[in-house]
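FORM 7B: Structural annotation worksheet

SECTION A. Query
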Amino acid sequence: MQLARARLGQSDLEITRVGVGTAPIGSTAEWRINWGPQDEGDAIRAIQTAVDTGVNWIDTAPFYGWGRAERLVGEALAGRREQVYLFTKCGTVRDDGGGWHEDHSPANIRREIEASLRNLRTDHVDLYQFHDPDPATPIERSWDTMQELIAEGKVRWGGLSNHPPELVARALTVGPVASLQEQYSLLHREIERDVLPFAERHAIGVLAWSPLASGFLTDGFLLDRLDPQDFRRRHPFAQKPAYARLVRVRAGLSAISSAHGRTMAELAIAWVLRTPALTGAIMGVRNAHEARAMTAALDWRLSDEEIRAIEQVVAEWSDG
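SECTION B. Predicted structure
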């Protein structure tokens, strides 16, 4: 049975309501956003399993493990490229100190698209996104380069990630913006104020990253069992006094989801997908079991009563 799909903005991409996120599988000891050890075989099977279940898009970036995630996606999709839409990004460049900065200069955008095409083993990507704003390069100049890549056939559609509406508006003066990718979850709702209304007005698709709050909104999440190098130990959600509030919020959400025979992850995904302006949610999966669970929430339409109950639970988090 085919999964329900939604059109991404004004593009011709009809995407499933959830897509594969690849930041966790890009994890390496050298990458600062380390998710702990990741077996490459598990990562490849996770991607293939998600595609087998009907998920039709994968979101990745050269930033994720500095190319590791893209290479794993390319390997997993060998002989299956036509079954999925490939979304990747550009702009985040590693520096000599182990950190990174944004570079949206035309030369760097072109350098990165060629590297991504090699990593992904393809001749085009379906959605190419600027990862984070680059204050040093006018977005009009960068977006003009995006239009050139589209005309050349290396990119089908252009999108922006983590860009405020004012920058999106400037990009629109140069060419279409198919989508915005933004952090959105029960614990991070800032885009409700400006990004979502802007996207609706301009018919731009929205993709939510971290809808499970980096795993903090999943059953069985235990901070003290994370790998010692796992970045989530340093996450703001894990610090006092926020974590004590989060433990109480998690208990309340778990009670609601359990009463419906559901998981907390399913509740978190059903909640973000209730939003009319949101086209799809990006779910990071690390193994076949997690991939098989990706679509479990798609048949859950939260009632007004359920939404009120959820909002009452998370009010403590918002008030804090």
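SECTION C. Observations
The domain at 12-222+266-300 is CATH 3.20.20.100 (TIM Barrel). The CA atoms of residues 51 and 84 lie 8 Å apart.

SECTION D. Sign-off
Analyst initials: ____
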